[in-house]
Amino acid sequence: MTRIGYGIVIMGIALSPLFPEAEAGRNRRSLEAVVRAQVDQALPPNLGVISVSLSGPRRRVRASAVSIRWNRAPRSGRITLPVVVRTRRGERRRWARIELGDKVPVLVARRRLRAGSRVGATDLVSASRAVRRGKGWRIPAQTLAGAKVLRDVPANTIVDDSHVQRPPPVARGTKVIVFVKRGRLQVSRRGTLQYAVRPGESAAVRLKGVNRIVRGRLVDHRTVLLEGSK
């Protein structure tokens, strides 16, 4: 695959006949999968594909028969792009509705998890993925060790509370450490949770020694990451 530039065409390059319909079916993929792969390759490292939907019937094609035209540089949000599919009868234009998002560290299943089982110590891993705001768990994988699996989870799936039982809440009054991160700079303060909250959720903390309440995300049972930290 070769990226030419935005406002130009991104297309598959392969040593294949001009009309890919004549080629072996085993080399074909769904048009949605081809479009997703080409879009993903064109994105900067901080962006990823959340969803792709296409107009028209579903077909299987060769990547070399598909090209996408970008009308602007990609950024987080929803966009609609023209997709050209070359066939024996000529070119056919389709439209792809694509949702892009910033990549954040979320929990992903390393292997298939079966409903009714318990999450093992190495079943989940934190990986950088594009997700909708509020989706996915941004907590250490070990926080969910032993949690019940609610339904079958394919490998490489972004895990949330529809897949795995949520961790128990941390009680009000629990002593925590609040971290704020700005690049390489990291500062910590001690404080107390103002209400019960589960790991991964928003928490309010009263800082020790000052009459001030700050908000952040409860990362695990003893750690809060202040809002805006990077």
Describe the model.
5% of the residues lie in helices and 41% in strands. The protein is mostly beta strands and 230 residues long. Among the domains are: 2-102; 175-226, SH3 type barrels (Roll). It is elongated. The chain starts with a strand and ends with a strand.
> How much beta, percentage-wise?
35-45%
Q: Count the strands?
A: 14
Average predicted local confidence, pLDDT: 86
Shape: elongated
What is the gyration radius calculated from CA atoms?
Answer: 23 Å
- Low-confidence runs (pLDDT<50, min 5 residues)? 10-24
Structural class by sheet pairing and helices? mainly beta
Defining key terms:
single chain, 230 residues, mainly beta, SH3 type barrels, 7-stranded antiparallel β-sheet, 5-stranded mixed β-barrel, 1 helix, 5% helix, elongated
